[in-house]
Amino acid sequence: MTDSAANTTGSQKPEARSQNGKAISFFWRRSLLVSGFLFVFGLAHASYAQQQQNLDKVEIHVLPVQGNVYMLVGAGGNITVQAGNQGVLLVDTQFAPLSDKVLAAIRQLSNKPIRYIINTHYHGDHTGGNESIAKVGTTPNVGPGANLQRPTATIIAHENVLNRMSAPAGVQAPTPTAAWPTDTYVSGQKELFFNEEGIEVIHAPAAHTDGDSIVYFRRSDVVSTGDVFVTTSYPYFDLQAGGSINGVIDALNRIIQIAIPKHEQEGGTYIIPGHGRLCDEADIVEYRDMATIIRDRVQAMIKKGMTLDQVKAARPTKEYDRRYGSTTGPRTTDMFVEAVYRSLSGKK
Ligand SMILES: [Zn+2]
């Protein structure tokens, strides 16, 4: 999910190599742009200030999951931490103003360097801390030369995450360069071996966005899903960013394929959702069934030629509304039904 208000922040200060005039003028251009933005969108500014205040009170809770893997819960998307002898790997970084608290929470688990950040998608509540957390880390042995080291942690993501965080030459990018993925992949999956564990970064096409990754820790037996799976609401897919209901259902099925439950009890593969509580396979099966049933109902209604208003009035979500529904806030049931309708009918 995303919260655009909090995503307009990030430390705007120039980078260390800013003796170079280019970087400084970039900084001022950026500051002007930001203040212009705040002037025009006074309301957004107010909600940012409010968000800032709320974030001041946020505590980061550390939850051991299984094996080398921990879950950090604060505000924004859940963070997954894998820690061991080689260092620390994170999945997602929450909001920039929380980075100091996130780092303090990581230090409770490990004093080793931060080596990798994997972004599940580009939304600001999952990537806001990229810049401030990556710069605390280092990456050894990059490139062909011995002892060649990158002065920051490596940020891994699907290529579309980079595309959405950056911009073509001459256009102001929505996020600072230092927050961008440094190591991207295009299709299928990317694999790495870190802390004696194989890690699969699996692309889920056209799901929550067009750049989603699911991260599977093979030895710890934990899947970090990003926002293709959340326990706090109906599925949310960003139609403007290439998401779709069918892609979300495919992603849920992919996770179910990976997960193996412990016989007749909780446990087995643990699943860290993009938002909400720690889950096991049974939870995600239930969620997949809900999403599939609602998708099928809306599909049938579209086939009958029903309009969006008629589909909404028919309440295709009704028995699930007590669990996932909402009439207020940024993700109402109405918006979900509309998104499913538009996703299936191709009417954007
Ligand atoms: Zn999201």
Bound molecules: zinc ion
| Tally of individual helices | 12
Structural class: alpha/beta
> What sequence of helices (H) and strands (E) makes up the elements?
HHHEEEEHEHHEHEEEEEHEHHHH
Largest sheet: 7 strands, mixed
Shape: globular
How many beta-strand elements?
Answer: 12
Widest beta sheet: strand line-up: 1-2-3-4-5-6-7
Average pLDDT works out at 86
**Share of residues in helices:** 25-40%
Radius of gyration: 21 Å
End-to-end span in angstroms?
Answer: 19 Å
What are the low-pLDDT stretches, counting only 5+ consecutive residues below 50? 3-49
Q: What would you note in describing this structure?
A:
β11 (222-224), α8 and β12 form a beta-alpha-beta unit. 36% of the residues lie in helices and 17% in strands. It has 12 helices and 12 strands. The strands form 2 sheets. Strands 1-2-3-4-5-6-7 form a 7-stranded mixed beta sheet. Strands 8-9-10-11-12 form a 5-stranded mixed beta sheet. α2 crosses α3, α8 (245-258) runs antiparallel to α9 and α9 (281-303) crosses α12 (333-345). It has helices at residues 4-7, 21-40, 42-57, 99-109, 124-127, 130-134, 159-165, 245-258, 281-303, 308-313, 321-324, 333-345, and strands spanning 61-66, 69-73, 79-84, 87-91, 114-118, 154-158, 183-185, 189-193, 198-204, 212-217, 222-224, 270-272. The two termini are 19 Å apart. The chain is of the alpha/beta class. Zinc ion (ZN) binds next to loops.
